[in-house]
């Protein structure tokens, strides 16, 4: 089973240079593609892989058109990576059989929950009372949507996602902890995708909010009362502490952490493994990583960093002395 080059171009557009009837059996990278595969080149740094690729056809931009033609068939697109993304969607629709179940028999759905008739609910999912699941949304296996939480339309929640567990709220008392009941919920907008085993906690009083178009990777923790703006994307193992606000169109790298009650403006990009300890009110790319090094060198550098505060004070004293001794 596959698709012809002609049917691909008819569906997605682009400028085909090659045989419309050529059948494509799979999608692959330039390095691994075989004679029946369709591949893509979206970064000029990998142009050296183009000539040697065995792919039946390659998606390229106009700049790489001539080089691709020397190799064989190609599809020219203004945005090859976007074209390839849409191709994967077309491929899945045409080559993979959907599940026969809109609601798997093993799913547990409370009678007081609202699930749109077009939503797909996978094996062992739990949807509690008062929860709402929108149209054309899919919950893969073992997804939990807790009481009162709302999921919008066309969302995709991967296995093990938990929406609406209690936020981490405790008041210290007599050497122990008194639980603060989490009385809010979680509201998720439309076109949101959430990776496997990601957890989004319900709010303490107000709701935790995930706006339209947000993309969350696997194993992400979103604390209570967090708000994440439209079309923001976060990579795996990132964490956002309670009551932080992240703007629209941000990117958060893998393993990065945003501390509680902070604000990130629209268009902020955080590098992987960065710990955000202050609000960032201007769009831009921010990094806070101590570079990896040989352990001995790293320890010496770390020791030097610990002395920077004292060195700064000494420099200020020397500057003050120099200023006083400078003739007016």
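^ Assign residues to that structure.
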């Amino acid at each position: 089973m596959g698709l012809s080059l002609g049917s691909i171009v008819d569906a997605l557009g682009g400028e085909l240079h090659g045989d419309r009837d050529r059948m494509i059996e799979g999608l692959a990278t330039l390095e691994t593609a075989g004679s029946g595969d369709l591949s893509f080149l979206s970064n000029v740094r990998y142009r050296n892989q183009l000539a040697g690729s065995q792919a039946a056809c390659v998606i390229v931009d106009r700049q790489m058109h001539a080089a691709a033609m020397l190799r064989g068939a190609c599809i020219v697109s203004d945005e090859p990576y976007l074209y390839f993304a849409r191709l994967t969607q077309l491929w899945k629709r045409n080559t993979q059989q959907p599940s026969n179940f809109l609601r798997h028999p093993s799913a547990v759905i409370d009678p007081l929950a609202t699930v749109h008739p077009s939503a797909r609910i996978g094996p062992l999912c739990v949807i509690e009372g008062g929860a709402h699941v929108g149209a054309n949304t899919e919950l893969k296996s073992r997804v939990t949507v807790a009481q009162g939480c709302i999921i919008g339309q066309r969302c995709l929640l991967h296995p093990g996602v938990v929406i609406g567990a209690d936020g981490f709220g405790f008041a210290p008392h007599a050497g122990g902890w008194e639980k603060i009941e989490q009385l809010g919920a979680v509201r998720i907008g439309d076109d949101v995708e959430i990776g496997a085993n990601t957890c989004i906690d319900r709010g303490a009083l107000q709701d935790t909010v995930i706006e339209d178009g947000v993309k969350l990777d696997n194993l992400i923790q979103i604390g209570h009362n967090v708000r994440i703006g439209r079309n923001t994307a976060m990579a795996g193992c990132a964490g956002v502490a309670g009551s932080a606000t992240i703007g629209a169109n941000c990117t958060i790298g893998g393993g990065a952490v945003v501390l509680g009650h902070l604000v990130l403006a629209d268009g902020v990009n955080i590098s992987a493994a960065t710990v955000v300890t202050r609000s960032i009110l201007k769009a831009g790319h921010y990094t806070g990583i101590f570079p990896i090094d040989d352990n001995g060198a790293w320890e010496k550098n770390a020791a030097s960093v610990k002395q920077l505060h004292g060195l700064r004070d000494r420099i200020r004293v020397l500057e003050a002395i120099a200023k006083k001794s400078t003739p007016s």
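The chain has a mean pLDDT of 95.
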